[in-house]
Amino acid sequence: MIAFGATERLSRALRAGALIVAAVATVIPVLWMMVGSLKTETQLFSNPLALPDSPAWANYGSLFQQFHFGLATLNSVEISLGVVAISVVLGSMAAYGFSRYPFTGSRMLLSGLLITRMVTPAALVVPLYLIMNALGLLNNVLSIILGVAVLNLPLVVWVLRPFFDGLPREIEEAGLLDGLSPFGVFWRIAVPLAAPGLLTVSLLSFIAGWTDLLFPISFSSTPEAAPLTSQLLQMQTGYKIYWGSLMAGSIYVTLPTLVVSFALQKYLVRGMRLGY
Amino acid sequence: MSSRRQVRGSRSRGPVATLLTWNRRLQLTGISLTLPALIFAFAFMVYPVANVVFLSFHQYSPLRSANTTDAGLSNYSWLASSDIVGHSIWITIVFTAVSVAIEMAVGLALATLLAKLVVESRHLFGRVLSRILLSSFILPFATPAIAGAIAWKMLLHPQFGPVDALLRTDIAWFSQFPLASVIVADAWKTMPFVLFLVFAAILSIEPDQYEAARIDGANGWQEFRYLTLPSITPVLAVVAAFRAVDAFTKIFDVVFVTTGGGPGNDTQVFPLLIWRTAFDFLNFGQASALAVVAVLVSAALGASLLAVRRLSPA
């Protein structure tokens, strides 16, 4: 019995050890970049494995002085919020409609909408470029918002529909009997009840807008509408890579999504689970 | 729905007529709720895709002329004869297969260990540890793809990357082993998705079954092989299918930032090839022909994915 307990303990420790090693390996890329972003270029190249003597915040300063990060931050925020607004408003209405008021052909439309999730974004961006050009929306955050949102919308419907399916119908029926219109029921009863689901899709939509690179590099050639992701590319030119700024900028882009994801981890994991 | 035939037969009668309008009202409500999303998807998804089919039979170079000229099948014959296209598709298939295999293997292993830890930890230490581990594993998912790609470019840099420094080598990983390096960077980014889904699937297995296995004298490996694995096979199938579709259609940022498709065309994955043809070489006609191929592949993959999903109870 004692021998069994000892091996059991050992195997537990080994398993925990393996997990800890894997977790460290998982966070190291971002962690090491954080360390690197605080080194000067000389320190970086002279001793790769050393920690910085004193944090070189100059790399972070350069983001705003050289690489328009002030404007880019504003653009990133606008894009993310725009994507959240369009995806959540249109997506929640559609998900509710598909869930509660099926109509002739709605199943087919739903399947069609979900298949659009498999569209190659780089293929869509080719004709969209011409449309945005015709609409005069190039170098405008709106073109980026529309592009990201249309690719994000199917995911939102996919995640939210089971949410509405799971809500108790009785409350909504009571609302209808009390004289609320179907839209009133949706807005005043279903939406508040589905708040956790809406938070999940808002989070996913925000991340989609914040991290997108494809649409900015396709639709915006000037810093005017460029978000943080595409501004990062300005730091690696064919002629020189500004490694200090590049690492600082990457950490800067990563921090907001990281903070939000950790804070709302439960909702993010739920989004992953419902999103496939 | 089943009452429709009766309704049609006897439109004049009062209560049935009410039923008809009621039914119609329900349908109208459904349509008006979904219409905004459908119009939006039509304008910026369906119409562009239709437009890309049109463009694929035309020549269009925005810098040279604002007009499209008829190109017949020339874009498609270029596509069929070009070595670059076939090579690109092959690279993308290899990338998808290897990347998904790694993610699945690592994700499954870590999820199994993590689930065991969570189930067994009745003490505070175990619970805190599993919390920290879960948060660590979510980090790549929350990191923007471009930032993750830059991190890997830094890690694998021949002059100041810690990997070469530790190995005491000066291998330029992204030029000497470009595809393998891209796969590692992508697998790092997407592994959490597999891990969390498999983790949830394992936790949803009835604890009684593990109890029974324990009583029957099953060791850890047997428990995994004969209980855990069969129980989560459907989930594994759906997750792998999903990841494969996503890897094939959405691989872009990591390659764009690290190798840019090179050296040569060694990592020119299909989405990147489409993009470069349009936005670097400004040949929208050829890019559209490539996009049509991509859309057809997506439609096929999407339809089969819906089928797989319907087959599995997950």
Structure report:
The complex is a heterodimer of chains A (276) and B (314). Helix content of chain A is 77%, strand content 0%. Chain A has 14 helices and no strands. The two termini of chain A are 45 Å apart. Chain B is an all-alpha fold and 314 residues long. Chain B is 78% helix and 1% strand. Chain B contains 14 helices and 2 strands, in the order ααββαααααααααααα. A two-stranded antiparallel ribbon of chain B has the order 1-2. In chain B, helix 2 (14-56) crosses helix 14, helix 3 crosses helix 14 and helix 5 (124-142) packs across helix 9. Residues 1-12 of chain B have low confidence and may be disordered. Chains A and B meet through helix 1, helix 4, helix 5, helix 6 and helix 7 of A and helix 2, helix 4, helix 5, helix 6 and helix 7 of B.
Short descriptors:
heterodimer, A: 276 residues, mainly alpha, MetI-like fold, 2 domains, B: 314 residues, two-stranded antiparallel sheet, 1% strand, disordered N terminus
Q: What is the structure about, briefly put?
A:
The complex is a heterodimer of chains A (276) and B (314). Chain A is mainly α and 276 residues long.
One letter per element, helices H and strands E, the order of chain A comes to: HHHHHHHHHHHHHH
What form of chain A results from the Cα inertia axes? globular
Give the terminus-to-terminus CA distance of chain A: 45 Å
Euclidean distance between termini CA atoms of chain B: 28 Å
Total individual domains of chain B: 2
CATH topology title of the largest domain in chain A: MetI-like fold
CATH architecture of the largest domain in chain A: Orthogonal Bundle
- The global form of chain B is flat
Unreliable residue runs of chain B: 1-12
The helical percent of chain A reads over 70%
Can you count the beta strands of chain A? 0
The average pLDDT score of chain B comes to: 85
What percentage of residues of chain B falls in helices of 4 or more residues? over 70%
H/I helix tally of chain A: 14
What amount of the residues of chain B lies in strands?
A: under 5%
